[in-house]
Write a structure and sequence with these properties.
This protein is an alpha/beta fold. The chain contains 8 helices and 10 strands. It has one domain: 3-Layer(aba) Sandwich (Rossmann fold).
Length: about 250
């Protein structure tokens, strides 16, 4: 595990985008799983400026790692819709380079990834409760691969409010996600973290025990994990952790 702590969100985004670009510029097929949400917004802006519309990046393929369908509707799910808005559409990514995880293919998704050569990099955010991807406390088991999990209670209400204009009728009773086993199979992991509301979770991931109650704690067992965090999200880390893990940004 390596950790880079930046002064602020903009620096975190810039350094993380440079790290991702290091993969995108390789002269071979590159498979990248990317995250939606607020944390990667500036990172995607930087990437769009760097690669948007250039044919020299046609070897890069993109995957979503979780999905919530719209119940009773034929439209694309919440995650891929957000990824299109944030990055895929403005970067002019070709449809043939977008590989969607859905309700229909989740049981075959790991096999398809293996056939495609595996994920070279997973770009993920960290939830304030310690979740990553769709792996949340109380539901996640470390042996899960790509899995269908129940969507109910506060999480369902949150999805309805933030993604479905408050319409609970559009919220399905489940979602699909790459579980810990599938995530840990990726060659490299990049966890980006920003804001004081993530400070507790980041401290638990780096300094706490590996437990399913903090699902992202398992990520530190990966042989190639890089965490890029701004100073606000790193505020609860001990001096010992900072001395042990912090790397100088390139």
């Amino acid at each position: 595990m390596k950790l880079i702590v930046t002064d602020d969100y903009d620096d975190m985004s810039r350094i993380a985008s440079h790290h991702v670009l290091g993969y995108l510029t390789q002269n071979r097929r590159v498979n990248l799983a990317i995250t939606a949400g607020r944390t990667p917004v500036k990172l995607y802006e930087d990437l769009i400026s760097a690669i948007g519309g250039y044919d020299c990046y046609s070897h890069v393929h993109y995957y979503n790692f979780d999905e919530v369908a719209f119940k009773g509707q034929s439209r694309e799910g919440v995650t891929i819709s957000n990824l299109r808005k944030l990055f895929l559409s403005p970067a002019k990514i070709k449809e043939t380079n977008i590989h969607k995880l859905t309700d229909d293919n989740f049981l075959d998704f790991d096999r398809q990834l293996q056939q495609d050569g595996g994920l070279d990099l997973m770009l993920m955010g960290l939830g304030s409760d310690g979740h990553f991807c769709g792996n949340i406390p109380g539901l996640t088991r470390f042996h899960h691969s790509v899995v269908k999990l129940p969507l109910e209670g506060n999480i369902a209400e949150f999805i309805a409010l933030t993604e479905m204009n408050g319409d609970m009728q559009s919220v399905p009773d489940h979602y699909v996600t790459m579980g810990p086993m599938s995530v840990m199979a990726a060659k490299n992991l990049l966890l980006i973290v920003s804001g004081e509301n993530k400070a507790w979770a980041l401290a638990q991931v780096i300094e706490g025990e590996v437990t399913e109650q903090i699902p992202a704690s398992v990520l530190k067992l990966h042989p190639s994990l890089l965490i890029i965090a701004d100073s606000a999200s790193a505020a609860q880390l001990s001096a010992e952790s900072l001395q042990r893990y912090v790397q100088s940004p390139v």
